[in-house]
Amino acid sequence: MPHIRDYKGKRVHMIGIGGSSMSGLAGMLRTTGVSVTGSDNARSYMTEMLEGQGIHVTIGHKAENVHGAQLVVFSAAIAATNPERVEAERLGIPQMERSTLLGQLMEGYAHAINICGTHGKTTTTSMIAETLLDAGQDPTIHIGGQLDYIGGSTRVGGHDTFVVEACEFNASFLQFHPTIAVVTNIEEDHLDFYKDLDDIAHAFDRFLALLPDDGVVVGNGDDPRVVQALSRVNCRAVTFGLGENCMWRPANLRYDETGCAEFDFALNGEILTHVHLHIPGEFNVMHALATAAACAQVGVSAEAVAASLEKFAAPHRRFEYTGTVCGVKLYTDYGHNPAEMHGALENAVHQPHNRVIAVVQPHTYSRVKALFKDYIHCCELADIILVTDIFAAREVDPGDIHATMLVDAIAATGQDVHYTPTFDDAEKLLREIWQPGDLVITMSCGDINMLNKQIADHGDENPFA
Question: pTM of the entire structure?
Answer without folding.
Answer: 0.82
